[in-house]
Amino acid sequence: MPNRPASMRDVARRAQVSLSTVSRVLRGSAGVAPEVRDRVRTAADELSYAVSRNASGLVTGRTCRVAVVVPSLCPWYFASVVSGLGHALHEVGLDMLVHQAGLLEDWTRALPLRHNSDALVAVALELTEEQCAHAADMAGPVILVGERLPGRASVHIDDHAGTAGATRHLLNLGHTRIAYIGSQTERGMSLSSATRMTGYHEAMAKAGLEPWTVTKTPGPEGGELAVGELLSHQSPPTAVLAESDDVALGAHRALCRSGVPVPETISLMGFDDHDVSSVLGLTTVDQAPQTLGTVAGHLAADLVQGRRPPATRVELPVQIVPRRSTAAPRERRTSP
Amino acid sequence: MPNRPASMRDVARRAQVSLSTVSRVLRGSAGVAPEVRDRVRTAADELSYAVSRNASGLVTGRTCRVAVVVPSLCPWYFASVVSGLGHALHEVGLDMLVHQAGLLEDWTRALPLRHNSDALVAVALELTEEQCAHAADMAGPVILVGERLPGRASVHIDDHAGTAGATRHLLNLGHTRIAYIGSQTERGMSLSSATRMTGYHEAMAKAGLEPWTVTKTPGPEGGELAVGELLSHQSPPTAVLAESDDVALGAHRALCRSGVPVPETISLMGFDDHDVSSVLGLTTVDQAPQTLGTVAGHLAADLVQGRRPPATRVELPVQIVPRRSTAAPRERRTSP
DNA sequence: CCACCGCGTGAAAACGTTGCCATGACACAC
DNA sequence: GTGTGTCATGGCAACGTTTTCACGCGGTGG
Predict the structure, then answer these.
(1) In chain A, what percentage of residues exceed pLDDT 70?
(2) Domain CATH number, residue A182
(3) Do A87 and B76 touch (CB under 8 A)?
(4) Higher local confidence (pLDDT), A240 or B187
(5) Which nucleotides of D are covered by protein (CB under 7 A)?
(6) CB of A43 within 8 A of CB of A75?
(7) Which residues contact A161 (CB under 8 A, 6 or more apart)?
(8) A59 CB below 7 A from strand C atoms
(9) Residue A23 sits in the same domain as residue A151
(10) Mean pLDDT in chain A?
(11) Could you list the residue range(s) of the whole structural domain that residue B14 is in?
């Protein structure tokens, strides 16, 4: 049975000062005699006292808490973002409340956000402006990670540059028949997906080549289906760029099953630098999700503490990670 | 600029009742006329009002929040546990505060736990009883996940049965020279590691075989080193059981590099059912980390709400996941 | 007809902080 | 010696809830 935790009053009694003084000392505000300051500090220490953010939040109106909403914590990508966020928030003394939106169709209503957090970080959630406004109304500043919405603070990677760079990587290797596997749910294509696709389109256009895109469902299944379609073509591509590593994983499985050697016959490239990509030797685009989280955390801290952040919309660069799954096309190799 | 959120007083005004009545309605306590109840409900809805857990916690002494401390969110295993926890807690209306202990040498002191959460779930943290007691003093009931401590609530898998079963799996395939790769940091061996090792030892003893263990550092590096040592032996093992998939991953790499075919020459088995294991075709032991989290969440909910949980110490079963990396030893196959 | 009870409701006192204002001590310039 | 200013400190009213108690109202049993 844990006896009730010490309150500020207890500290005050022990240090022989008033509540106000204890508050001042613990909040670090000036105007306290050094001798008294020390006395209070040791008293608080001896009682292993910590201020109740509950109570202090009540009067200051700030909860020192940031709510993070994420579809799920399981996938590697989300976990990394949240991890980065957690570290960044911890640094500035903010606690992190994690909610998994998962199945909730309308978490902006369902979650106990109001009064309970100073800001909201939405990770990889495709919000309408209306939902976003409602959430902002409930939870203060909203920061989008991995997505964006006009007028809202956001942190995301340069999807366009990512696929454009990836396409160039394949072009530089000598490929000309480069297919792209995109994805789409029944609710349409996410902004991120769409942007990635245009990056590919532009790079192909610049090279004077015909784009070749296949759009399936997200996840490995989509990749498998797409490869089925691509291989049935009379002259299949020599390189495939998948929208994500997840999709690429499916594509890889399908290629293996069909006995198509990677990269000998077909080069395969993903996007994300998923955990398994390094094991598989998949060439991919690193989007440093943890950095994404860290940056979002700093941004949240600025907004919460009323500072004007350096930028309310951050676009982070990406980096190609070359591995075994891409190589020059066979035609070129075999020609003298 | 988000205008100040509605308070209970606003709802009361709009519904033409007193604060007390609004509180009663929103808390679902009986003794309110149905007509009034509805009026309050719609008023609250129209203002999209949510109770401030801050304020209510102040008076009830309960924060409706559970703190989760985890070494890091990045590794797949931790993310899964926390994900399960999050879902279970959400179900019963508890919010989840996530802290990454990471580098903090003494988070029981550093974290703002006191007054700020109703319970503490420590995931995969090797705590001394003293630390645990201090944490309990700060944050209420403590629940250990993946570790255990006499007298403390805990949820963990049956490590012993896991490695014992894994060893039997290899024995059943016909192996007799089965090596075990354990791990240990400079601070000693974790309870979980130790238990896994004894599982192996017992299964070998029961089969009348000599155990053969190698202990290195945790992580893939340890696996690589261990394989180096095992292969240098004049008659290397025909099967290797690694303490974790992480270690097995390193072992796999080292075996591939040395040109030893898996499972033809050496069968390899891990423990955890890590993400990459399915990709690699690694036979392993599934420990359903998400279930671990879910169970811990329910346990936490029970403790927080003062109910006596069915059991304060839960040991979950594990399951062998057979994949490509284990097969009968070659000797047996080649012998007529 | 009165005492009593149950029911629906409101008033008011907590809960543990913070911020503002008041107080007293002391130093300094006049 | 009086006025003015600064500094360290204490007192007190919030903040938004829950909870206890009290109130008024009909109905029921004696």
Answers:
(1) 96
(2) 3.40.50.2300
(3) no
(4) A240
(5) 7-12, 14-20
(6) no
(7) A199, A317, A318
(8) yes
(9) no
(10) 91
(11) 8-51
Residues A267, A293 within the same domain: no
**Average pLDDT for residues B130-151, to the nearest whole number?**
87
Is residue B27 domain-shared with residue B132, that is, in the same domain?
no
Read off the CATH number of the domain in which B35 is found. Answer: 1.10.260.40
Q: Are residues A100 and B109, on separate chains, in Cβ contact within 8 Å?
A: no
Asked if B185 CB < 7 A from strand C, the reply is no
pLDDT digits (tens, 9 = 90+) for B157-204: 999 999 999 999 999 999 999 999 999 988 889 889 999 999 999 999
Give the minimum alpha-carbon distance from B282 to chain A in angstroms, rounded to a whole number: 12
Go through chain A and tell me how many residues it has. Answer: 336
- Copy the structure tokens of residue A302: 């600025």
Q: Is the CB of B33 under 7 A from strand D?
A: no
Mind telling me how many Å the CA of A110 is from chain B's nearest CA?
10
pLDDT-derived band at A275 (thresholds 50, 70, 90) equals confident
| Cβ neighbours of A291 in B, within 8 Å | none
Mean pLDDT score across all residues of chain B: 91
**B98, β-bridge pairs:** B68
Residue B162 contacts residue B285 (beta carbons within 8 Å): yes
Best of A3, A54, A113, A131 to mutate (most B CBs within 10 Å, chain B): A54
Same domain, A227 and A328: yes
pLDDT of residue B333: 44
Number of domains in chain A: 3
Classify residue B3: in a domain, yes or no: no
Chain A environment of B63 (Cβ under 8 Å):
54
Q: Which residue is nearest to nucleotide D12 (CA to C1')?
A: A20
Could you tell me if B295 and B281 are in contact, meaning their C-beta atoms sit under 8 angstroms apart? no
Within-domain flag for A297: yes
- The count of C-alpha atoms lying within 13 angstroms of the C-alpha of A48, restricted to the half-sphere facing its C-beta, is 17
Same domain, A126 and A195: no
- The answer to whether B152 CB sits below 7 Å from nucleic acid chain C is no
Instruction: Answer whether A109 sits within 8 Å of B48, measured CB to CB.
Output: yes
Are the Cβ atoms of B97 and A97 closer than 8 angstroms? yes
Query: What percent of chain B is predicted at pLDDT more than 70?
Result: 95
Residues of B in contact with A53 (CB under 8 A): 54, 112, 115-116
Residue in B54, B83, B96 closest to A74 by CB: B83
Contact state of A109 with B72 under an 8 Å Cβ cutoff: no
What nucleotide is nearest B49 when CA is compared to C1'? D16
Inter-axis angle of helices B34-46 and B19-27, nearest 10: 90
Same domain flag for B304 and B168: no
* B59 inside domain: no
Q: What is the pLDDT of residue B105?
A: 63
Nearest to A287 by CA among A146, A86, A100: A146
In terms of DSSP bridges, do strands B239-242 and B267-269 run parallel, antiparallel, or are they unpaired? parallel
A330/A258 same-domain check: yes
Give yes or no: residues B172 and B299 share one domain: no
B191 CB burial (10 A radius; 0-12, 13-18, 19+): middle
